[in-house]
Design the sequence.
């Protein structure tokens, strides 16, 4: 075959294969493992921030359960919401270095956004002083904590490098 007889599709495939091959050059198993580890550390830091907010919510729950729902709603407005906004912002700004990290980011962003949404509903329920609404929002928070534990478990163990999950996205 002469260069003039090569089809554009064939040239495109060869170019793609060469590009993909070059991306893997210099990317050792140790480097891929390090990338997964870096993603894991970043997401664990975010989950620690999320759990700090969860702890703040336990204080809100305590105020509500001791008959101070308005104080509890004020606590959300004057500290908890700002802390959660910071977590959501940070989660959205993380740039995963691996395919595995891209998937974990989706989970962490979803978790943190849902917690922020639940904060607003919880504050409204507390201000209504309607016990059934407050309990329903507490139950949603409890269910979200179960989800947070699942996300933490998924992040706690990095995948096998040989799986390809530690490759760049």
Sequence:
């Amino acid at each position: 075959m002469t260069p003039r007889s090569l089809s554009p599709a064939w040239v495109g495939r060869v170019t793609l294969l060469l590009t993909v091959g070059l991306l893997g050059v210099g990317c050792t198993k140790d480097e891929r493992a390090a990338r997964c580890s870096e993603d894991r550390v970043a997401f664990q830091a975010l989950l620690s921030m999320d759990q700090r907010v969860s702890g703040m919510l336990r204080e809100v729950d305590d105020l509500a359960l001791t008959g101070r729902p308005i104080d509890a709603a004020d606590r959300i407005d004057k500290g908890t919401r700002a802390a959660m906004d910071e977590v959501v912002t940070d989660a959205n700004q993380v740039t995963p270095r691996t395919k595995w990290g891209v998937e974990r980011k989706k989970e962490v962003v979803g978790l943190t956004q849902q917690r922020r949404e639940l904060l607003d509903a919880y504050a409204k329920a507390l201000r209504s002083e309607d016990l059934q609404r407050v309990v329903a929002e507490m139950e949603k928070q409890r269910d979200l904590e179960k989800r947070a534990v699942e996300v933490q478990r998924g992040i706690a163990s990095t995948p096998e490098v040989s799986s390809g999950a530690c490759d760049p996205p």
Q: What stands out?
A: The first helix runs from residue 8 to 24. The chain has one domain: 37-156.
